[in-house]
Amino acid sequence: MSSLGIVSPQSMHFSEPLPLQSGASLSDYTLVYETYGTLNADRSNAVLVCHALNASHHVAGMYEGEAGSKNIGWWDNMVGPGKPLDTDRFFVIGVNNLGSCFGSTGPMHGNPATGRPYGANFPVVTVEDWVRAQARLADALGIDQFAAVMGGSLGGMQALSWSIQFPERLRHCVVIASTPKLSAQNIAFNDVARQAILTDPDFHGGDYYAHGVVPKNGLRVARMVGHITYLSDDSMAEKFGRELRNGGYQFNYGIDFEIESYLRYQGDKFSEYFDANTYLLITKALDYFDPAREFGGDLNKTLANTAAKFLLVSFTTDWRFSPERSREIVQALVANKRNVAYAEIDAPHGHDAFLLDDERYMNTVRAYYDRVWNDIENGVRA
Length: 382
Known about the structure:
By secondary structure, the protein is α/β, with parallel strands linked by helices. It has helices at 127-140, 154-165, 184-198, 208-211, 216-230, 233-239, 258-273, 276-288, 299-302, 323-335, 359-377, and strands spanning 10-14, 18-19, 25-26, 29-36, 46-50, 79-80, 85-86, 91-95, 148-152, 172-176, 309-315, 340-345.
């Protein structure tokens, strides 16, 4: 397997207003995206990869002139020549969602109505809004139907939403480490993280740009809370245990344990590159995702109009989006007599497992994309 090498982001501007679920609309917005591989003549080999909370359009490859792991795409182990999602076969698209802080229009950008950054006035967006924006980008690229739409975690919610909102526009739906809706516990974790940001004195009601500050303390705590939920107890114990940084207790409220050092490092790093308003928006999108709500909570009815074939993958130690939640989706698809494959991977890494290199996981995805490719070669279209 080889790397994609140097890649470059692209952008596309949209002037037609995008109606949002909240009743608001967004006009004059830009989507930043990257593509890898070559679109074939009949445009049948396109795969959309949807990103999770703190990721972006930079799915794979690296940027010219930048050094360090931050330069490498967040799913570079999954996407590229000879990799499970093989760019020698597929034309892969990664899109940065609206409200993000990585290029697409978000709170940091200018509000056409005021000429100042949107800040807290950026409209709340949902998973369904993101999917409609992605569909507009697909239209502009001349892609009527995706061979597959794929995502992990929040990206998996988007993939599932694609199968519900635009059933005729994807042939395969790949949902990894995701859920049909957040549990009360998950919503609680998100609210604690948001409260850390909202109560930071440097937040200034979301207009901290005008004050030349960043609510770093709030972002640090938010990231620490989130990061705890992405790891399993076993992986924490294996990595850190109760190791002490200095060999003994300091009897103060500084850093005694290695896990404390790790979490503070992750929080500090996150606060340097992520936008607080974006964090609030994206965690709310997570909380609001509940497509069965329009069907009285009946997931079977929700998925009745889907037409895609499905792959779902979960991980045994993922307590944030547990296997039980993936099984709910699988059972509803089976009840609707959909073509669905399901893999429950015994992996120790918690929710973060969907980003890692577990051989069984990678082989499962690779084998599924072999099926997707066979459909393309045999001219199978939904």
